Amino acid sequence: MCGTANPPGRKFCRRCATPLDPAAALSATTKRRRWSWHGDRSRWLRAIVALLVVAALVVLGVVLYPHLDPAIQDIRDRVSTPAAVAPRTVTATAELPNHPARAAADGLSNRYWGTPTPGAQATFTFAEPIRLLSVVIHTGPTADRDHFTDQARPTTVDLTTTSTGGTTRTTTITLADEPGPQRTDLGTSDVTQVRLTIRSATPQTPTTHIALGEVEFFRRP
User: What's the burial of 153, exposed, middle or buried (CB within 10 Å: 0-12/13-18/19+)?
Assistant: First the structure.
């Protein structure tokens, strides 16, 4: 103590606040312990809050992932350089002897798939699942404008993709009646097969048939 005289019954020195009896000292110690205990509880609360925040972020990620994945795939598609991919096999429900369906995927502009009437289907199968970015279709028997109208041309087709697991997606494409490539963007994952169905064509004559020049497929590398 500092030696200052204090009145009887006082618990703390009026000058230096030193406890003047054991009970006061014990009370001061208890207050300090309580303050320390509250500090520990605060740290535990902060830890619990942090864990709850992490748990909430995990749950949010699981819930939003189905919506985020298409956006992520779309971004990857946009920054990728499409690569041409040839189908492993080509079959058709109808084809003319000199114009088989495989001629629509041989990379040559002077050959085409010929079919007598609308409704015919050509199926293109790939060696492995691909991320199919786009399909390019060339209608008519040739790219030469002088002979482009020698045969009827498809005007509407259905493009049905089949992915691993059997999931299908059908896109109806309206084609311009002119020579040259016509691109349709798809952005479909794990494609193993594409089926092209001719829905309509330009008017035919007794001596003409429907001609589809080429179908090109482009994948994400």
Answer: buried
Q: Which of 214, 201, 196, 211 is nearest to 98 (CA)?
A: 211
> Residue 32's Cα: distance from chain center in Å?
59
Q: Residue 168 corresponds to which tokens in the numbers above?
A: 């299908």
Task: At 20, list the tokens.
Answer: 């003047």
| Banded pLDDT at 211 (limits 50, 70, 90) | very high
**Mind listing the pLDDT tens digit for each residue in 29-45?**
555 555 444 556 677 77
Residues 6+ apart with CB under 8 A from 163: 129, 169, 188, 189, 190, 191, 192
Residue whose entry in the numeric block shows the structure tokens 């619990």: 48
Separation between Cα atoms, residue 192 and residue 214, nearest integer Å: 19
Q: How confident is the model at residue 110 (pLDDT cuts 50, 70, 90)?
A: confident
Q: Within a 10 A sphere around the Cβ of 114, how many other Cβ atoms? A: 25
Residue pair 158/123 in contact (Cβ under 8 Å)? The answer is no
For residue 200, name the pLDDT band (cuts at 50, 70, 90).
very high
- Please indicate, yes or no, whether the overall pTM of this predicted structure exceeds 0.85: no
Burial class (CB in 10 A: 0-12, 13-18, 19+), 146: exposed
CA-closest candidate to residue 85, choices 192, 211, 197: 192
